[in-house]
Write a structure and sequence with these properties.
By secondary structure, the protein is mostly beta strands. Helix content is 13%, strand content 35%. β5 and β6 form a beta hairpin.
């Protein structure tokens, strides 16, 4: 959905819409959308700036980075951003905190689909985990540690590291 900035009403534009994205469009490789992305957006022009406030909601299936089990990840995230005309784009050595919520308008149009996709990607965890205490897969037998089927001894160490282990123990 493309918005022409010059045609925005004075009181802004309120949009409530579902967006369908392909799994290949998001940054997480193994993401599967369980629901369409519901977006509530308010787009206003304030001087030369365009303010976009909104909230996105959806449910996505991720694969846990430790145990490789699929799990549901709910997104319910508000956002607030400002788009400036491209003339205001300055090359900076370092970004300020307020620069993190800014983008630039190229061609006086805003593609809200791109805005929603960007905000959605920002909600994803860096390392998707089914739970914060997930222990993952046993490196010896390959079974899920949380299932209790693994009876491997965790004390096995690489014999090549014994000298380092002794050195560190002696140093204490």
């Amino acid at each position: 959905m493309i918005i022409d900035v010059d045609r925005l009403p004075e009181d802004g534009l309120k949009i409530s819409r579902e967006f369908d994205f392909l799994s290949t469009e998001v940054v997480e490789e193994n993401a599967v959308f369980l629901k369409p992305v519901q977006a509530e957006l308010v787009v206003r022009k304030v001087g030369e700036e365009v303010q976009i406030k909104g909230k996105i909601q959806t449910c996505i299936s991720f694969v846990c980075s430790r145990c490789l089990s699929p799990f549901e990840f709910s997104v319910d995230s508000p956002f607030d951003m400002i788009a400036l005309p491209e003339e205001f784009e300055l090359e900076k050595e370092e970004l300020d905190r307020e620069d993190m919520n800014r983008s630039f308008l190229y061609g006086r149009k805003i593609d809200l689909r791109d805005v929603v996709l960007e905000q959605l990607n920002l909600t994803f965890p860096l390392k998707p985990l089914c739970s914060s205490d997930c222990q993952g897969i046993c490196p010896v037998c390959g079974k899920l540690i949380k299932s209790g089927d693994c009876s491997c001894v965790a004390g096995d160490t690489d014999s090549r590291l014994e000298k380092l282990k002794n050195f560190l123990r002696d140093k204490r």
